[in-house]
Amino acid sequence: MIEALKDLERQATEELASVSDSALLQELKVKYLGRKGLFAAVSSQMSQVPPDQKRLAGQELNRVKTVLDELFQSKEGSLGAGNASVKSIDITMPGTFHTPGRLHPLSQVTADITKIFARLGFSVVQGPEVETEYYNFEALNIPLDHPARDSFDTFYLENGKLLRSQTSTVQIRVMEKSKPPVKIIAPGKVYRPDATDATHSFMFHQLEGLMVDEGVRFSDLKGVLYAFAQEFFGSDTKLRFRPHFFPFTEPSAEIDIWMNSRGQWLEILGAGMVHPNVLRAVKINPEKYSGFAFGMGIERLAMLKYGVEDIRHFFENDLRFLRQF
Amino acid sequence: MKLPIEWLKKYIDVSVSADKLSDLLTMSGSKVEGVEKTNGSDVIEIEVTTNRPDCLSILGLAHEISAITGKKVKYPTLGKTPAKSKEAIKIKIDDKKGCPKYTARFLSGVSIKDSPVECQKFLPLVDVRAINNTVDATNFVLFETGQPLHAFDADKLKGPEIIVRRAKKNEKFLAIDGNEYTLDEDTLVIADAERPVAIAGVMGGKLTEVTSETKNILLESAYFDPALVRRASKKYKLSTDSSYRFERSVTLENVEQASRRAADLILEWGGGSETGFSYKQTASSSKPKSVLVRIDSVEKVLGVKIPPSRIATILKNLGFGVTTQTNKISVNVPPFRRDVSQEADVIEEILRIEGFDKVPAAIPTTHHVPGSARDIKAERVLELKQYIAALGFQEIITYSLLSAKALRQSGYGEKDAHRLKNFVSAEQEYLRPSLLPGMLGAVQFNLNRKNESLKFFELGNRYVNGREETVLSLCLCGSFEENWRRKEESSFYDLKGVIENILATSQLKNFEWKQAKNSPLLDNASDIVVESRPEGSLGYVSKRILTGWDIAKNAVYAEINLENILGYNKSAEKVKPVAKFPIVRRDIAFIIDEKVPVSDIEKAIRENGRPYLKEVRLFDQYIGKNIASGKRSLAFSLAYQKDSGTFTEDEITALQQIVGETLKKDFQVEFR
After folding, report:
1. Does B484 sit within 8 Å of A211, measured CB to CB?
2. Is ipTM > 0.90 here?
3. I need a surface site. Which of A325, B121, B155, B368 has the fewest CB within 10 A?
4. What is the pLDDT of residue B644?
5. For B344-370, what is each residue's pLDDT tens digit?
6. Is the pLDDT of residue B596 over 70?
7. In which region does residue B297 sit, left (phi positive, over 0), alpha (psi from -120 to 50) or beta (all else)?
8. Is-contact B95 B76, C-beta < 8 A?
9. Average pLDDT value over all residues in chain B
10. Which residue among B31, B230, B367 places its CB closest to the CB of A121?
11. In the structure, what pLDDT confidence band is assigned to residue A80 with cuts at 50, 70 and 90?
């Protein structure tokens, strides 16, 4: 049997050397290694080998099998034929792993903004949406029965609480808990009883920012907002700071961005130096500390960035819309 | 506030174009919304912020422009009140806080006719209709000075005095707009002996209005409490040029001058003579406020150096009294600038005239802030959302406010949700007690548009029993997997697996699934118990609810409270050494009563495989052909491992046997 195996090896080596075509190679592979091939035939003689030679014969059988396998493999490699299973792959068929979902565009924009401010040293915090008069108005220097409240029309609950009409509530909650230095941003939902149209929604998202420390100046606010806007909208972004009025900041500013496509300035942010009355309300000494705060509408930024025309698209959750982000 | 350029030019030289002027106003805080041409003249529309009622007049804006351009304001010359003027009428003020100052002027023999051409041209530019010389004069002065005035037909007033009082409950009042209002006791009115003749600061009465027959006029100029006027204006839904100014506060010191100016115009345009003047002031004029501004504060707050001389010039041009001292400036605030009361206010005044563009952009020097204000939950929200999205779920954001219909359709009663007091549309009546209604709305919306195979999640707040909670909702509807290799409808088990992954990624290991007792919303529901607290549930949305939403497919839904899960404190665990000795796997398959929960079987296997059994994993379930009804065939893979050494075949067989015997004894299983 050992002789027969050696013959088989010699014969196969010779025949293989002359093969230059993959169809022939496959024929040859069947002839030698097929289920009814020559190797199978020789190995079936194993049962007739006398017991004392069995071990040697077995070793030879394994050796020749390995040699043949390698011979055919290397020949297949050189002819570029590939093996049987590879041959059945149609690489143009679609992959079959599940499609990942996506974050809602408003979450994506929030995440983008959060990342920019994180690199500026701001950490993200949250506050409740159901709030009290104190956090939504009083502590923010907005007196009762004052026309300033007109800008903050508010939903009230039957239990006497209200739905925050601005994320500035979080400023107060943070400053009550943490002493300066404080550097936070607070994204979240806000509510206003506005009639709904393409640019107004009774529910929308804001992102509030606050920094309080010794020696914080209006120039720092400007620097931070420039850094943000140029990262978010592009390095050639132009901003315009305009005086404005907010009860909780002094000086206050509205910030416009120059939209080349529209040839006009568009308001994107409200900001200012934290009003000394607000600092006093949370027992921070305005003589020692100063700070700035800013707030922006996430929907507005998303609409500008992605050219979304109607704010209601964000809340319909149409997959054909959501999958574009 | 509308600012007609032509009218403005009566008081100040404006040599720049309307566009240039708009830019100057905008950049100093009076934001221009637009410039429009009305009847051939430019009218600038300005957004006047609530802190600047002094800019709700053309003279006020002229003063602002003067501060920016340096041009002087030409104020109208006022006539003189006759020296021996007798009392026009007796004034009685019952509500002294509501009306700190009231003046009345008696003008007799006035002939009512059209006002001059110029006045008739100007009033429409500020959206006011010209009526007659007297009414037009009061309106003209309102826009010129910001002080609202009212002219009564003096002959129609009953009784000897004017009374400023609160209305009686349910007292009736016929206003100039022709409507009758039923008043309440919070309403401040001007009354004669018999009835209210005006809602103070809001609107005059029909029965005492000036008509073409009027001969004698009582001209009112007063200061009314802003909060009272605001309440009345809101209560009766009457917003007038007058109420708009009173609720923002007029200038107490301007009350008499405006009355003088209006009287001058009425007499000039209609003849007649001034025969009386009454005056009642219940509060003394507040002393001019004085604010100390430290020169170095300006730079400390703004980050830009402005020379003291420049600061003084800006403040003087704005009408502030300025006394320069060493390193500080003492500033006297004029009465019309009630909004300025502390140093920060003055600094803003300086900056807005100097220009916000003069401040350089810097970056704060404190970069890293130690973590007292850190909010771990908030920080993890984004991470969690990204993880769930990667698992194949699309994030949605739905409204937190719901209609009663959406609530009911989702199996909630109106008592389960908090109701809003002042919702604008029926779509916003309730605050959501669950994310289920929003989710079903999104599913319905997409199915109707042939968007199928839905995997949605939302992370948001719900409000139940006065508690606001951040929760996660997940929904599968349609196929879970659908490609040319595998097609699988979404099932309970898919979403269960997703949730297990979510909990595992939050490092939570201690969670269980418990049969929900009675869930009205979900069929085949399971409670999710995390660290021994019920934190959510999972199941098939009940058919009844799906039918209500017109959803024809099954929907698997889960809602999980994240309050504890997001805040879970992941402590770093020390790594365990990887076992050195080989693990041996053996399968065990049997037929068992289908009612026995897999968790019970697993528990029994674990207990009996001690101490070598390391893993138990269900890898197959079969129900159907060749299995008696009420039974199922289950197959588990068990893995044994020793801390030291390997097993012999006999040892493994013995271990498997113990497990097998127990299953036979405890659950009467049949081995296959």
Report:
1. no
2. no
3. B368
4. 87
5. 999 999 999 999 999 999 988 888 888
6. yes
7. alpha
8. no
9. 92
10. B367
11. low
Rounded to two decimals, what is the model's pTM?
0.84
Residue A193 contacts B, CB cutoff 8 Å: yes
Put simply, the answer to whether B451 touches A99 (Cβ < 8 Å) is no
Strand partners, B638: B586, B616
- Residue B410's pLDDT is 95
Q: Which of A194, A243, A319 sits opposite B352 (nearest CB)?
A: A243
Confidence band (pLDDT; 50, 70, 90) for B123?
very high
Contacts of B213 (CB under 8 A, 6+ apart): B112
The proportion of chain B whose per-residue pLDDT surpasses 90, expressed as a percent, equals 80
**Does residue A87 surpass a pLDDT of 90?**
no
Interface contact B392, partner A, CB < 8 A: yes
CA pair distance A75, A82, nearest whole angstrom: 10
Chain B residues closer than 8 Å to A94 by CB: 483-484
According to DSSP, the residues that pair with A188 across neighbouring strands are: A206
Binding-face residues of A in 73-92 toward B, CB within 8 A: none
CA distance B395 to chain A (A): 5
Mean pLDDT computed over B625-640: 92
What is the chain A residue with the closest CA to B467? A130
Q: Would strands B454-464 and B394-395 be described as parallel, antiparallel, or unpaired?
A: parallel
Of A190, A149, A155, the closest CA to residue A169 belongs to A190
B421 interaction partners in chain A (CB closer than 8 Å): 155-158
Task: Report yes or no: A120 at the B interface, CB cutoff 8 Å.
Answer: yes
Return all residues near A82 (Cβ < 8 A) that are at least 6 apart. Answer: A76
Q: Are strands B161-166 and B90-93 parallel, antiparallel or unpaired?
A: parallel
**A178–B375 C-beta distance less than 8 A:** no
Angle of helix A2-17 versus helix A22-33 axis, rounded to 10: 180
Mark yes or no for CB contact B373/A177 under 8 Å: yes
Inspect the interface and report whether the beta carbons of A101 and B390 lie closer than 8 Å. Answer: yes
Query: Could B382 and A316 be called an inter-chain contact, meaning their C-beta atoms sit closer than 8 Å?
Result: no
- Residue B503 makes CB contacts below 8 A (sequence gap 6+) with B511, B530, B565
Q: Which residue has the tokens 């809340």?
A: A315
- In angstroms, rounded to a whole number, what is the distance separating the alpha carbons of residues B42 and B18? 7
Q: Name which of B240, B291, B301 to mutate to probe chain A: the one with the most chain A Cβ atoms within 10 A of its Cβ.
A: B301
Sequence-distant (6+) residues with CB within 8 A of A169 are A127, A128, A131, A135, A136, A140
CB contact under 8 A, B50 and A202: no
**How close does chain B come to A76, measured CA to CA in Å?**
29
Record: contact B362-A222, CB cut-off 8 A: yes
Q: Are B667 and B594 in contact (CB under 8 A)?
A: no
Bridge partners for A258 per DSSP: A265
Quote the CA–CA distance of B260 and B254 in Å, as a whole number: 10
Neighbouring-strand partners of residue B292 = B330
A100 to chain B nearest CA, in Å?
A: 4
Which of B360, B369, B456 minimises the CB distance to A121? B369
Range name among A258-272, B123-137, B430-444 with the lowest pLDDT average: A258-272
Round to whole Å and give the CA distance between A253 and B360: 15
Q: Which residue of A has its CA nearest to B440?
A: A317
In the β-sheet with B533-541, what is the strand arrangement from edge to edge?
B394-395, B454-464, B467-477, B555-561, B533-541, B522-530, B511-515
Cα angle: A296, vertex A297, A298; to 5 degrees: 110
User: Across the beta sheet with A249-259, what order do the strands follow?
Assistant: A123-124, A182-191, A203-213, A290-297, A264-274, A249-259, A239-246
